[in-house]
Amino acid sequence: MEDSFMSHRSTFLLPPQNKDNTSSVTNYALVILNQRLPTYAPLLWDHAKLRVCADGGANRLFDEMTQLLHSEQPSLLQSRYKPDVIKGDMDSIRTEVLEYYKKLGTKIIDESHDQDTTDLHKCISYILDQTPDIDKSKLCILVTGALGGRFDHEMGNINVLCRFSNTRIVLLSEDCLIHLLPQSHCHKIFVQSSIEGPHCGLIPIGMPSAKSTTTGLRWDLNNTEMRFGGLVSTSNIVKGDIVTVQSDSDLLWTISIKRKP
Ligand SMILES: Nc1ncnc2c1ncn2[C@@H]1O[C@H](COP(=O)(O)OP(=O)(O)OP(=O)(O)O)[C@@H](O)[C@H]1O
Ligand SMILES: Cc1ncc(C[n+]2csc(CCO)c2C)c(N)n1
């Protein structure tokens, strides 16, 4: 096991000008799935260099950005928030939405022939194909609408974290975020307490963890075993600004997102 720390910061939930220059991520991509856009979606949009809609996610962008930013004219907003790509099996996007973005120059990738991988999987593959190897370590893919809703979709979305375990991917909902902590590294999580926490969890995924050790949590693990059917760390609380995690298995990290008053 390598002992170099991998650091994690949710600075994508802060306005871009507040961005932490020490972040190891310099290149965000955004994937919009087919669930209600979170209220902070415009912020993620501003951080992202590449914006991709997964099939019916394009309907959400078209319909809901105007609801989030009602100070401006809907038609202006719809043309300003133009995705770079729409990819998927195209059974959920409305024709009028597809035609609208196609006219604006969005690249449309119809993969209806592939009924074995999810639209999110297809979008992640696209983003990785577009990213030169040298830039992949700086890439972080933010995924909206990934949690809550249909449980089969949620599990499919979590499975994507495991299938692309070498890529930083953050699954987001209005209320929380999830990402993988690969066992290959020790992890340092810099908690942005103005926008996230204190509720958090650490969950072994795929296989039990014989030994996990943490610092910075109210209920720290100390070479503790975690497994489904035994202990998994839910309803934990972050104590300060830094949490460290080390484990012999990949773990899911989840932390609550604070609602704006
Ligand atoms: N209720 C949901 N909960 C979580 N994720 C979702 C949900 N609905 C859609 N998604 C995500 O958004 C992506 C695109 O959604 P879309 O509705 O276009 O998918 P789909 O392939 O048509 O789904 P299905 O045919 O199973 O209903 C899905 O692949 C999934 O990752
Ligand atoms: C064993 C197995 N279970 C389910 C599906 C169905 N499926 C999985 S991903 C996908 C595309 C959704 O956009 C569909 C239809 C399959 N192919 N194989």
Automatic annotation (TrEMBL):
Functional pathway: Cofactor biosynthesis; thiamine diphosphate biosynthesis; thiamine diphosphate from thiamine: step 1/1
GO cellular component terms, semicolon-separated: cytosol
Biological processes annotated in GO: thiamine diphosphate biosynthetic process; thiamine metabolic process
EC number of the protein: 2.7.6.2
Location of the Thiamin pyrophosphokinase thiamin-binding domain: 187-251
Intracellular or extracellular location(s): Cytoplasm, Cytosol
Classification via NCBIfam families: thi_PPkinase (TIGR01378)
Similarity remark: Belongs to the thiamine pyrophosphokinase family.
Full protein name: Thiamine pyrophosphokinase
Organism: Arachis hypogaea
